[in-house]
């Protein structure tokens, strides 16, 4: 079964609760199975620095749905958790992104895989390297841990809490 790596983040109100809800919804999906979750990292915002810090992490998921359907599932989970549409790079209750889906490359108006900015972002690469340092980026053909060493975004990224337990209350 294909593996997808899903980035998640929240910087509004009870950040951990939104993350737990999203991961619980994801684990309850019929065609997905959450295999592993990184620690939760606290990160300073980039792009729009005038907002609260984020909690971020990565979930490794097994799925038998293709990337466009997985995107639809993730967007539905964001809606269920209560994501409000705001400005680009603005505050969010929950954000779920497909970072890598096996070695697939997708470039459509609706979806780009691998995530086009992941190789520059420590808040993505730190948790990714924690759970899957040897995954190969499909375009750059480099390991995640090597990309982390060369990341160009130096925003503060620090471990906030151990990996959440899926399927339990916060």
Describe the fold and architecture.
- The chain is α+β, with helices and mostly antiparallel strands and 170 residues long.
- It has a single domain (3-161), classed as 7,8-Dihydro-6-hydroxymethylpterin-pyrophosphokinase HPPK (Alpha-Beta Plaits, 2-Layer Sandwich), CATH 3.30.70.560.
- The chain is built from four helices and eight strands.
- It has helices spanning 15-27, 67-81, 122-131, 144-149; strands at residues 3-10, 32-37, 40-43, 54-63, 95-101, 106-107, 112-113, 157-161.
- The strands form two sheets. Strands 1, 2, 3, 4, 5 and 8 form a six-stranded antiparallel beta sheet that branches. A two-stranded antiparallel ribbon has the order 6-7.
- The protein is globular and about 35 Å long.
- The termini are far apart.
Strand content: 25-35%
Instruction: Return Rg in Å.
Output: 15 Å
Helix content: 25-40%
Order of helices and strands: EHEEEHEEEHHE
Any idea what the shape is? globular
Per CATH, what is the topology?
Answer: Alpha-Beta Plaits
CATH uppermost class: Alpha Beta
User: Spans of 5+ residues with little confidence (pLDDT < 50)?
Assistant: none
- Our count of helices gives 4
Q: Please state the second-level CATH architecture.
A: 2-Layer Sandwich
Structural class: alpha+beta
E-strand count: 8
The CATH H-level homologous superfamily: 7,8-Dihydro-6-hydroxymethylpterin-pyrophosphokinase HPPK
The total number of structural domains is: 1
N-to-C terminal Cα separation, in Å?
A: 30 Å
**Quick one: biggest sheet?**
6 strands, antiparallel
Mean pLDDT: 92
């Amino acid at each position: 079964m294909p593996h997808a790596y899903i980035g998640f983040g929240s910087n509004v109100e009870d950040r951990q609760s939104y993350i737990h809800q999203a991961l619980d919804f994801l684990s309850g999906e019929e065609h997905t199975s959450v295999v592993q979750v990184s620690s939760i990292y606290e990160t300073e915002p980039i792009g729009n620095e005038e907002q609260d810090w984020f909690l971020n992490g990565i979930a490794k998921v097994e799925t038998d749905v293709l990337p466009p359907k997985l995107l639809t599932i993730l967007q539905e989970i964001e809606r269920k958790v209560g994501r409000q549409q705001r400005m680009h790079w603005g505050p969010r209750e929950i954000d779920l992104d497909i970072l890598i889906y096996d070695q697939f490359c997708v470039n459509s108006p609706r979806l780009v895989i691998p995530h086009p900015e992941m190789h520059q972002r420590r808040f993505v690469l730190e948790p990714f390297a924690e759970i899957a340092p040897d995954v190969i980026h499909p375009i750059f053909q480099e390991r995640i841990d090597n990309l982390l060493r060369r990341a160009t975004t130096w925003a503060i990224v620090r471990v906030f809490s151990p990996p959440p337990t899926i399927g339990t209350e916060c």
